[in-house]
Amino acid sequence: MNQVRARARRHAIAKAEDQSQTAIWVTRLLAVLAAMAIVLQATGAFARSAPESFSALAKKLLPTVVNISTTQTVEGRPGLDIPQLPPGSPFEDFFKDFFERNQPQNRSRKATSLGSGFIVDAKGFIVTNNHVIQDADEISVILHDDTRLKAELVGRDPKTDIAVLKVKYDGDLPVADLGDSDNIDVGDWVIAIGNPFGLGGTVTAGIISARGRDINSGPYDDYLQTDASINRGNSGGPMFNMDGEVIGINTAIFSPTGGSVGIGFAVPTSTATPVIRQLIKNGEVRRGWLGVHIQSVTPEIAESLGLKEARGAMVASVVEDGPAANSDIKAGDVILEFGGVNVPEMRRLPRIVADVEPDTTVDVTVWREGAEKSVKVTVGTLKETPTEVAATTPQDTGGEHSVEGLGLSVAALDPSMRERFKLDDKATGVVVTEVDATGPAAEKGLQPGDRIIQVSQSDVTDPEDVARKVDEAKAQGRKSVLLRVESAQGLRFVAIRIDKG
């Protein structure tokens, strides 16, 4: 009996120990899982999971989206062409008489187009694309409940392809909230609502495929790309995030067939919102103007200037009597910040400047003579000429310039050189007389007759100046030297790799 009790006691103790060990392992496992959950939540793996359904969001947002119908008067179809006959043909008079008697009359006719839009104010303000309503004689807005209203054009902005309409409605209209497109990331879910092919309110879903797309449609291209289905008739409709906020205006598609192939583009609200507000307030958009011509900062230019990385926008020239000319901004400066906004690359500067209210004085950070310098400029008002915010200059194509090691020959601007290259008395610098076809200067596109105005941001007036500045760049361990060149295409900066020979 005692032995049985002893065995039972040992069994109970062993079981308790096993249970205790199991509890320890379970506790450890739970701790590991909890830690993994924290890490996954921190990386957004849970926050960005696919929704089970878009139905609740679609039901809420559909009433804020409208269909837009426009009509315009176009000229009638032209008549038939008379066949080309050999001179003196006996049928020439017959065909001429026949076609003149049977030509259709060139009557005007009405053409209809369809698009989309969304309500941004309960008072009846509606946003759409400019190309949806351009040249329209009449504009009608169809609400989600099929109510048809006549719309008036409040204002439009062709540069961003945005227009604002106004309708009269008894009561308050449902409004779509404008969100911040800067908070949307590649891979985030979005839904698009619009009027594809005139079918009426249609919802599609997808993700953000890319940001900052430049499709060469205007000076302020910064499109969001999505694979949510966007087709003809979706233009002007909203793109929503999962919080039900508008983060883009569906504007264009890339398609060889005219239908959706999963590449659609939307104007981000970071671009659209200031335009919408100005159109509602003033009926037009007033943009800031700096008055400079700019070019990209290539790695070679950055290295020659002592910049750690290729960033910013380089001032190739300053427009005479423009805002920059009345400030301390100079040709050769690299604009790194404008009004406290970072300038990561050349093409961002025009949009940053345009967003500044005209007549505002802002701080500008430039890179000059190997260091950052702060200057002030009072922003002007952009005129309709699209190049006046900050026009780009011809880009250098890669290579070098030099007296020795640059693959070119230069000469002073004496009367014989001015006569040879047809240069007037106002021309300055030194003239390029010969370019080695296999040398660094040829790689950068320099040609005989081009003039070198500056080397390393210092004026040059004779070949010795050029040689001295190149030698200084070599002594400083520079891999390239920066030239300011004037040619038939205008002024530009060119960084040329120094050939060690």
User: What class, by secondary structure content?
Assistant: alpha+beta
**Which CATH architecture of the domain at 288-392 is right?**
Roll
Under the CATH scheme, which class of the domain at 288-392?
Answer: Mainly Beta
CATH level-3 fold name of the domain at 288-392: Pdz3 Domain
> Biggest sheet: strands, sense, closure?
7 strands, mixed
- Number of DSSP helices? 10
**Shape label:** globular
Mean pLDDT across all residues, rounded?
A: 81
Helix content: 10-25%
What amount of the residues lies in strands? 25-35%
What Rg, in angstroms, do the CA atoms define?
33 Å
Explained architecture:
By secondary structure, the protein is an alpha+beta fold. Among the domains are: 181-282, Trypsin-like serine proteases (Thrombin, subunit H), CATH 2.40.10.10; 288-392, PDZ domain (Pdz3 Domain), CATH 2.30.42.10; 408-497, PDZ domain (Pdz3 Domain, Roll), CATH 2.30.42.10. 23% of the residues lie in helices and 32% in strands. The chain contains 10 helices and 27 strands. The protein has helices at residues 2-42, 55-61, 92-102, 130-133, 269-282, 299-305, 349-354, 415-420, 440-443, 463-475, and strands at residues 65-74, 109-121, 125-128, 138-142, 148-157, 162-167, 189-194, 202-213, 223-226, 238-240, 246-253, 264-268, 288-289, 292-296, 313-318, 334-338, 341-342, 361-368, 371-378, 380-381, 390-392, 408-412, 430-435, 451-455, 458-459, 480-487, 490-497. Strands 14, 15, 16, 17, 18, 19 and 21 form a 7-stranded mixed beta sheet that branches. It is globular, with a radius of gyration of 33 Å. The termini are far apart. Mean pLDDT is 81; it is low at 42-47, 385-389 and 391-402.
